[in-house]
Amino acid sequence: MTSENQKSPTLLVLAAGLGTRYGGLKQLEQIGPHGETLMDYSIYDAKQAGFTRVVFLIRQEMREQFEQQVGCKYRGILEIDYAYQDKKDLPLNFRCPSERERPWGTGHAVWAARDTLKGSSFAVINADDYYGAETFEALIKSFQADQLGAKNLFSMIGFRLSETLSDHGVVSRGICRESEGYLESVQEWTKIGGKPLIGLNSKGLEGKLNGSEIVSMNVWGFPFSVIDLLERELTNFLADLKESDLTSEFYLPAAIDAGIKSGKVRVRVFPASCLWMGVTYQADKANVVDKVNEMVGSGRYPSPLF
Q: What structural domains and CATH numbers belong to the chain?
């Protein structure tokens, strides 16, 4: 096992999103009985599983509010750091168009944390999703496995598509194909929803889905060497981007898929064994609040959480 994997891995929490469909910063939305966010429950589960350091990837202008509502709760409990996603932070001599408003996407977000990660192995999660304790236990086990000391071996927790949909609108998901426990491809599909279930594939073409597909919900385990892959693929993405395109994003699954197709990386898929919850839309919140209250009532989580 490499020295990189001998210490506790870092948890990288992607929290820089704009929450366009939700209508606000859903990563800070109060869900639990004492105002806990979904992120709070993920961090609690991660700590119980063995993570000791958390890096929050946010936008610079969120820092004060984020520290007051989130970061301060963990001081003295976990090692806390911040990394920042800045549209102007790009490789080589690429420049961000002044008219662009959207962040560059999840692949860019992980790359943006490169200096704060300090060379350590790390797991990635979304701030606004609930993944369950078993997810973080599986991530820790993946880091502890001897074969995961190899720089080209990643891990992913896979969820069933039908269990990650919203009753209140369409969603985007990384649709996966696997074989014998390893990821063969992952493609970002958008506008997934309806009955029968349809969506737009990575080429923008409409396709049918059946709900049994394994999807990436952005739960990954990486050696630090993934940063090299992300920089290479981000550079390719920017080189191919039309000057008039102000909305396309560099998705993390697209970078991983490119790595797989090049034969340079392998990704072990660990099937999720617990419930996923998220708040894509405001109307999703009530159901999520009810489910969290049920778990608190059953004793799965203390209240208050910290």
A: 9-158+216-260+273-297 (3.90.550.10)
Tens of pLDDT, residue by residue over 57-113, are 999 998 998 898 889 999 899 999 999 999 999 998 899 999 998 899 999 999 999
* Sole residue written with tokens 């004793």: 299
4's CB contacts (< 8 A; 6+ apart) are 119, 120, 121, 149, 223, 224
pTM over 0.90: yes
**Exposed/middle/buried for 263, CB within 10 Å: 0-12, 13-18, 19+?**
exposed
Of residues 112, 132, 90, 131, the one with CA closest to residue 12: 112
Contacts of 27 (CB under 8 A, 6+ apart): 15, 17, 19, 37, 38, 39, 127, 128
Instruction: Kindly compute the dihedral angle of the four CA atoms of residues 176, 200, 127, 305, in this order, to the nearest 10 degrees.
Output: -80
Model confidence pLDDT, tens digit, residues 204-246: 999 999 999 999 999 999 999 999 999 999 999 999 999 999 9
